[in-house]
Amino acid sequence: MEDIVGLCKRRGFIFASSEIYGGYNGFYDYGPLGVELRNNIKQAWWRDFVHRRDDIEGLDSSIIMHPKIWKASGHVDGFSDPLVDCKESKKRYRADQLFIAPVILDGETCGYVAFVEGADAAAIVKRAKKLRDSLDKKQATLDEDALATQHTEFTDATDAQRAQTLAPAATAVGSLTAPREFKLMFETKVGPLADDSAVAYLRPETAQGIFANYKNIVDTGRVKIPFGIAQTGKAFRNEITPRNFIFHSREFEQMEIEYFIAPDADWKALHRDWIDQCTNWLVSIGLSPEGITEDIHPTEKLAFYSQATTDLMYQFPHGEQELWGIACRSDYDLKQHQEHSGKSMEIFDEATKRKYVPHVIEPSLGVDRTLLAVLTAAYCEDEVPNDKGQVEKRTVMKFSPKIAPVKAAVFPLLKNKPELVSVAEKLYKKLQRRWNVFYDASGAIGRRYRRQDEIGTPYGITIDFDTIEKDGTVTLRDRDTCEQRRVTEAELIEFLEAQIDG
Ligand code: ATP
Fold it and tell me: How many CB atoms lie within 10 A of CB 381?
């Protein structure tokens, strides 16, 4: 993760928000390369799920919507996480990400150590020894096996266990409070009146904007069951513990689809089909299939209205974590809005001549998490020969050409030869009309290649003396294999089209 964060800052992908003021926890800014990568991911998603399908329509709803929407959806009353305070260190934790392990000394449980999800075993033992020392039992034998294996989620800890627990950043036991529900929606006030009637929310998901517009889209008469509505856009959650770079932030972007189906449709088969489509899409933008796994939520952990949820998990640098949630949400959301708004959410199904409120399958993906997965998949350190044939280490981002921030770089072999420069500039201007390309005339050609490798530009195009003196062909270099071949301009454009626009 450190390598990725370092490269992102150094090469202008991602910066901490408000960095000149020391940063702002849970918020990030995307620099020149980051914004390109981000836009390319969103465009690929939109192209594949909206433009290239006949059954999905697009939408862009407002971020702030009528507060009644969030009442109907259940967010006002239920969208919260269990918060735990440490009275000593003033740190805050999410109870479902905090665990305790028993400190067993000479066979007797003498207390507990608390640690956050993902903490390493050695650090837990160290904390247990600290607790042992504070109990004046320095000579006692510590059961390290129990520390490694007997973990309880803090949400399930009893009051007595809590009183005996040493918090992650505390020096004495008993500093952690019992978990309490912490609301995740950001509140704001709309209009000149600052009273409670003006309270509104920044949306915590884009999905409700889709449900709120479902009737408008049905009424425009372009859709028939099954059909989907897709939306990308910002979402905001006042996460208790934003962490792991852009994985878990307070302002992020989602790409969501609500796919409406008949109530008696074979939802299990359709759900499976969506899981496969989503997996294939992730592979199409460069994630390796081996890094993607499925986490099927156990029935007892599902919300009462939910029929099934499968998360696509990805092997991030900080572990295997949720990337894409694919849920079967029955007719719950539309029925809630029907009840709260008093407007019918029924659709007339031409095929079966029936009227009903459809059920829905919801594939919900985060742009920023996808971007982190893409960075993780692309990051590579390898060895390649330099200009002199010596083997050299390089950092290379192996982005798929479809989403790479810069698609190709054009180089005149020498910058002080006007005949090379003018051909190179002309080609650069031509390619620039279609793709984000880069022009670089300065420095040794090997160094210019290396700079592009580090930002993941898949193709290098060099204009040399053969171009101007012989046949007009250019050298096309492949970032990953470093192989070079000569192509005509027409071949070059055809090749780039196939790789980038694919
Ligand atoms: P988590 O448990 O990791 O907080 P979640 O289960 O609450 O996530 P959902 O409500 O299912 O997430 O949101 C759908 C998708 O939106 C997630 O799969 C993820 O890609 C993205 N997402 C959710 N919360 C965040 C966040 N705080 N930062 C970045 N992306 C997020």
Answer: 9
Alpha-carbon gap, residue 57 to 210, rounded angstroms: 11
Q: Are residues 282 and 312 in contact, defined by beta-carbon separation less than 8 angstroms?
A: yes
Contact 410, 429 (CB under 8 A): no
Q: Which of 322, 361, 368 to mutate to test the pocket of ligand 1 (most atoms within 8 A of CB)?
A: 322
CB contact at 8 A, 14 and 246: yes
Which residue, by CA, sits nearest to atom 26 of ligand 1?
A: 248
| The amino acid at 240 | I
Q: Please list the residues that pair with 384 across neighbouring strands.
A: 392
Digit-by-digit pLDDT tens for the chain (502 residues) are: 999 999 999 999 999 999 999 999 999 999 999 999 999 999 999 999 999 999 999 999 999 999 999 999 999 999 999 999 999 999 999 999 999 999 999 999 999 999 998 888 999 999 999 999 999 898 899 999 999 999 999 999 999 999 999 999 999 999 999 999 999 999 999 998 878 889 999 999 999 999 999 999 999 978 999 999 999 999 999 999 898 999 999 999 999 999 999 999 999 999 999 999 999 999 999 999 999 999 999 998 898 889 999 999 999 999 999 999 999 999 999 999 999 999 999 999 999 999 999 999 999 999 999 999 999 999 999 988 877 778 889 999 999 999 999 999 999 999 989 999 999 999 999 999 999 999 999 998 989 999 999 999 999 999 998 898 888 899 999 999 999 999 999 999 999 999 999 8
331 with 263: CB under 8 angstroms? yes
For the CA of 370, the closest atom of ligand 1 is 20
Which residues does a 6 A CB cutoff place in the pocket of ligand 1? 237, 239, 248-249, 252, 254, 322-325, 364-366, 368-369
* The CA-based dihedral angle spanning residues 332, 333, 335, 339, taken in that order and rounded to the nearest 10 degrees: 130
- Which numbered atom of ligand 1 lies nearest the CA of 325? 18
Count other C-beta atoms under 10 Å from residue 496's C-beta.
21
Residue with the smallest CA separation from ligand 1 atom 22 is: 366
Nearest CA to ligand 1 atom 3: 322
β 187-189/165-166 pair status? unpaired
* 214 CA distance to ligand 1 middle (Å): 23
CA distance 287 to 275: 15
